[in-house]
Write a structure and sequence with these properties.
By secondary structure, this protein is α/β, with parallel strands linked by helices. It contains 16 helices and 19 strands. The chain has 3 domains: 2-226, P-loop containing nucleotide triphosphate hydrolases (Rossmann fold), CATH 3.40.50.300; 229-295; 322-511, P-loop containing nucleotide triphosphate hydrolases (Rossmann fold, 3-Layer(aba) Sandwich). Helix 8 runs antiparallel to helix 9.
Length: 512
């Protein structure tokens, strides 16, 4: 069981409260999804439950009560385990802990868990460093680590990140069949709809300075419908209260003005004067009652401000323009052959998705395409890597990163655009390493918009974005008049955005 009582977490450096007096209980068979816009504190919540030392930059109040061991899959394993061997990762609790002799006993069940996760017995190479595995492979290693520790509670932060479709379906079934209490974060709307039976929604209104939360026992699809109805109903009642009050006050004001006028006219009639004085006293009492009635009005609900991002309508590619003529035989990394032959011809402005199993070479292929296209002067190429640190300078601020190719006179315009993506002023000025994964993803997308790139190469662009931001990103690319080549296994994203889907296999790259 997991019990949270009046949990309040405050980010000291930003002087911002992520959530206030959050209370919920997870019992066996509970599968609660934590949702909210980027930077709302979803990952921070999971870290606080697992180990408060992971959020030393926060002030934490309230009770976190757990019975048994916690299995925690962090969002970005590389952030903390970059130079560790995979064996150290599997056996250590955290990078600074030491391996005890008894820890090696966990490996007795390693083969069983590899079979359960449908992984090869040779998948774990104890001499290999964590940073030598692909993103999808790291998620699988993270699941192996969790199972080796035989936890009683599961915390999964973006478990589908970088997984291929086959493994996502496997993971979905794994989560569905779990009886242990499960708290998870995911950008994958299909996973949320299929797995969740409870929702914890972290929201921040009033320019992200006022935290609110909802905890409710229903699945994601039901919750979306319920929340919209609830907000619409509350807004309707609140507005009717204000309309009725306004009409009542208008009638009251007419009577009040009339009595006040009569009082001014009465000079020598003491009897009428006393009556009017009593009437005025009654009116003032009525006015006080109206004031108390106003205090009980329902608030007009303030919805989360959606992110806003769009390309300049002049950013485009002519339909007949040759973008790419690719012929690689074979596709390989170092001496390892990934695919025997890769051919791809791209003209004009199609929206192309590339899928394939983990380790098939998709990211390697996209990087080669970027290296080829970035040499050209007749197109402007934007590239989003899976590994944000390859592109974002972590020692610069978010604002500096966007402004690096522009004049300082553009600062107010860029700040306005970042504000539309729900960056606070502190987040704009803080070092980028302190941003959440979703905020870094938004930063890379904004960079492409500001640079007016007309060819976008995107490696899992939705992997850290909230499902609440998904419709905006889908619309951004649907309306984009340039060329998009994208690696993704996001099922809703594939369905809504792409014209062509290719699969990369050991043999070739072919239309799916």
């Amino acid at each position: 069981m997991l019990q949270i009582e009046n949990l309040t977490i405050h980010i000291n450096k930003d002087n911002r409260t992520l959530f206030d007096n959050l209370t919920f209980v997870l019992n066996p068979n509970d599968k609660y999804a934590v949702i909210g816009l980027e930077g709302s504190g979803k990952s921070t919540l999971l870290k606080a439950i697992y180990d408060k030392r992971l959020i030393s930059y926060c002030d934490v109040k309230g009770k976190i009560i757990t019975t048994g061991k916690i299995g925690y899959l962090e969002q970005s394993i590389l952030d903390n385990w970059l130079d560790e061997t995979v064996l150290d990762y599997l056996l250590k609790t955290n990078p600074w802990s030491k391996i005890k002799l008894t820890d090696y006993q966990k490996l007795a069940n390693l083969d069983n868990y590899l079979v359960e996760l449908k992984l090869s017995p040779h998948f774990i190479d104890e001499n290999k460093k964590v940073n030598e595995y692909s993103g999808g492979e790291l998620v699988k290693i993270g699941l192996v680590k969790i199972l080796l520790n035989e936890p009683d509670i599961l915390l999964l932060d973006e478990p589908t990140n970088d997984l291929d479709l086959e493994t996502i379906i496997f993971l979905e079934n794994f989560m569905l069949n779990e009886s242990r209490p499960l708290l998870f974060i995911s950008h994958d709307e299909a996973l949320l709809e299929n797995v969740s039976n409870g929702i914890i929604h972290l929201t921040q209104i009033h320019k992200r300075m006022k935290p609110l939360h909802d905890v409710i026992k229903m699945n994601y699809q039901e919750y979306k419908e319920y929340r919209n109805l609830q907000l619409d109903s509350q807004a309707m009642v609140a507005r009717k209260q204000r309309d009725d009050y306004q009409k009542k006050m208008e009638r009251f004001q007419q009577i009040y003005n009339k009595v006040a006028h009569q009082q001014n006219q009465v000079v020598r009639d003491p009897i009428s004067g006393r009556l009017l004085k009593k009437k005025m006293h009654a009116l003032k009492s009525m006015e006080k009652r109206f004031g108390k009635e106003k205090e009980k009005f329902l608030d007009i609900p303030e919805r989360e401000e959606a992110i806003n991002l769009f390309f300049d309508e002049n950013v485009s590619i002519p339909n007949n323009k040759s973008i790419l003529e690719l012929n690689i035989a074979p596709l390989k990394i170092n001496s390892q052959i990934l695919s025997k032959e890769v051919k791809l011809s791209v003209y004009g402005n199609p929206k192309i998705a590339i899928i394939g199993k983990n380790g098939s070479g998709k990211s390697t292929l996209l990087k080669l395409i970027y290296q080829e296209l970035s040499k050209r002067n007749d197109i402007s190429v934007g590239y989003m890597s899976q590994k944000y640190e390859e592109l974002i300078h972590y020692d610069s601020s978010a604002l500096e990163y966007i402004l690096q190719d522009f004049e300082n006179s553009d600062e107010s315009r860029i700040r306005k655009m970042m504000g539309a993506l729900q960056f606070t002023r502190d987040e704009m000025d803080n070092k980028t390493h302190s941003l959440s994964g979703g905020q870094k993803a938004k930063l890379l997308l904004l960079k492409m918009v500001v640079n007016k790139n007309n060819v976008l190469l995107l490696d899992e662009p939705t992997r850290n974005l909230s499902p609440l931001s998904a419709p905006v990103i889908h619309e951004l690319l649907i309306n984009f008049k340039g060329c998009v080549i994208c690696i993704t296994h996001d099922r809703k994203f594939l369905e809504n955005v792409f014209d062509e889907i290719y699969e990369l296999t050991e043999t070739n790259l072919s239309v799916k």
